[in-house]
Amino acid sequence: xxTLLVTIFFLVIPIFFLITRRRKSSKRLPxxxxxxxxxxxxxxxxRAMRNNTAEKWLEQRIxxxxxxxxxxxFGKPTVxxxxxxxxxxxxxxxxxxITSQQPESTRMILGDRNILELSGEDHKRVRNALMxxxxxxxxxxxxGKLDGEIRxxxxxxxxxxxxxxxxxxxxxxxxxxxxxxxFGVERGPRRDExxxxxxxxIEGLWSVPLNLPFTRFNCSIKASKRVQNMLKELICEKRxxxxxxxALPLQDLITCLLSIRNADNEEELTEKxxxxxxxxxxxxxxxxxxxxxxFLLRLLANEPAVYAALLQEQEEIARSKSLGELLTxxxxxxxxxxxxxxxxxxxxxxPVFGGMRRAMKDIEYGGFLIxxxxxxxxxxxxxxxxxxxxxxxxxxxxxRFENQKSVPPYSFVPFGGGTRICPGYEFAxxxxxxxxxxxxxxxxxxxxxxxxxSRVPMPVPTQGLPIEITPRKQM
Length: 475
Prior knowledge:
CATH 1.10.630.10, single chain
């Protein structure tokens, strides 16, 4: 009998302590539910994105659970955080506490060695390599080529038309710019096949990760493999051209990355890193700039005073140019009001809704535990529409950005922040300003659909923003 009691004691006590410890630990987890395995809250969140109610969806979570809550997104347990402190926490991490890691489904499509996935010295090395090409000093020499691409686009797709759909045309424009300036791929069958596969690839970026036949995710995976094979061929060709000295190191982004050497004369970036970062540049440059330009045209059709002021600025620049003369870096510096309008568009309708990080170890945040391996989800609109940061946030007001120093740190984050700020920021600025210059000085337009939009996951206006266009009389 005594032996039995002793045995029970030694069996029960460890179980008791284990249960107690787990209860104690679980109390420290943020409130909320992880929902069903794999699916979690993914379907509800994606539905809210499509209905353009994702911010309200998150606000309801905040009302119910408080400023920090747990859920499951895209197959992983996740902690949602928001606000300036959250943005600072996300962007100023050292790679040892949290790492910039996208959901497994996104990594499977975009690759695991792109700049969004890397941290610490790897992130710094890849970012420095990209900045060799994307820094302002390098980009100055490409303004003229970008100018030519945009003029050609308007000539082929706008002139002679009475009605167009803006978003697909802007995506066509930004992809052609990427192919020409960043990859050195000229117009033709190769570019056409690349854009077709690329579009199928990005459709599954924010989808439930069910890799079953005929699912959006499965189609995206297949398209990603084809895109990567095409880019591998291109990288091989560029390497051969460099070896034969028939290409210049800075003639496009790929040759630039291939040309970077370290002190030991070895490749600074692996071929896998070059490939995966080319893909991430494609995704960023294709979607974000096209969305911003589209919503700029939508805004200008709805805000006559903003349109008049922006048009006046652009007409003054146009009058200073002789017939056929290309825009210059100095002309872009004069587009101050146009860029303030663009910044306000980025505040009200940021192309990227939010992002994911991963906890590298157990973290204390906001009085709760974020367990090692869990995702950390943050959302850009939560500070952009905070009336304590931006008074009357629903009002479109470009004057908010007349003095950048008046905007509180870590509150305006469409391009990220800290060491994680988008390396393509300056390239996007040039692209947007040149495109808007030629559209507003060559055309007038009116909208043919309502002002609603959805997120899939980028903002998409109703019917892609169809407009009626009329050529302006050239000065």
